[in-house]
């Protein structure tokens, strides 16, 4: 038999020098805690004393207190670090040897790199034993999925960000981008309505960015998402929908309805000759819409109890496959679009964690994925219940899954709001005509507080709660509920000749 392999020394993967450097500069300049190294967490440190020290620095600075070797004495036991040095003396030495503040981010990333290496090594070591001594109740694919989940969490810790080498490279790229059409070059994914582009303050979804779409159940965010997917596919951008909610058949049926103008219930109820709900002309429209859909670079994967690692692995494998193929005209595909329906449906690593932690466990890995595979990612957010208690339940940042803090993970967040849906819900329980009148007035749509009210019947508001460069804004559009599709309220000017 082969000799037993020596156990792996995971402690040896700790970058002691990087941990010492980052603690020294933070003790010198507390402001860096909430700015340059805001992504650093206590558990990223491999040395226990360093972890405890960093935790104390964060606790003190978060309360507006100063953190230095003197103030930390009340929070750290002044034990011996070595024969001739106490903890206080050790921290004072770190401050004396502190690196420049400009290097803080680099050293913090080095700490995370070593933490990620330890986490990945432990996962691989653990699963090596599981693969070789399998539990009869678990198949190979179950073990692979578990390992993918573990490594997916590591991927989120150390995102692959493509950095340009010099300011000259950055300026060159900027000037080149100004001289060509980004959409024509397939670098930006167009959106279906001009109003959406205006709210984004961009002409579409950009590669490497993470986008959110917020809406209540039954408010039409899935309908809007499918229109976005159609527009992406029509313009040569492969689209993957990871859905915990819909099958590929359900997605296809709704997209055909949006294109043909034949409602989904009408299709489902069609049962000739006894119950023919579709005539010959309508059948032709459905056939035409189906043929268009058949040619789309669209994939829908139905998820069940998948964790984040499995979802990311599916997306990465899909993009790798797509990039081996060409468009029908022989050209290269544009930027891929990856859509997740919904953030809250992903099975969390820790079911007991709060919503903010669970949201971050999905948002940050998907942001890392977008940068790593050079794609745009769109995450659907089901509104939490707090918004329904407001006098006017228009979406705000705190309605996001994970609360207002989750907004920082996104490059931009859109929302869809249909006052008609909320109005009708409250009208059903109005006690009399007077109350019904107040409800109708409350849910009238207005461009501003002093503008003329607009009846919300068949209309929706698409707005932003975060954009990269512009102020948040909103636009009104039409919503055709029967076909679950949105349309611009702007009418094209008639041709004069």
Describe this structure in words.
The structure is a single chain. The chain is an alpha/beta fold and 497 residues long. Helices cover 41% and strands 13% of the residues. The protein has helices spanning 16-28, 48-62, 87-96, 104-132, 140-157, 167-178, 194-200, 221-234, 248-260, 264-269, 280-294, 308-322, 355-373, 419-427, 433-442, and strands at residues 80-82, 85-86, 188-190, 204-206, 210-215, 239-243, 298-302, 337-341, 376-382, 412-417, 459-466, 474-480, 485-488. The strands form three sheets. The protein has a nine-stranded mixed beta sheet, with helices on both faces. A two-stranded antiparallel ribbon has the order 1-2. Helix 1 (16-28) packs across helix 3. The longest helix has 29 residues, at 104-132. It is globular, with a radius of gyration of 27 Å.
Question: Would you kindly provide a brief summary of this structure?
Answer:
This protein has 497 residues and is α/β, with parallel strands linked by helices. It has 15 helices and 13 strands.
Largest sheet strand order: 7-6-8-9-5-10-11-12-13
Beta-strand fraction estimate: 5-15%
Mean pLDDT: 85
CA radius of gyration: 27 Å
Annotation, overall tally of beta strands: 13
The H-and-E topology, N to C, reads as HHEEHHHHEHEEHEHHHEHEHEEHHEEE
Keywords:
alpha/beta; 41% helix; disordered N terminus; two-stranded antiparallel sheet; nine-stranded mixed β-sheet; 13 strands; 497 residues
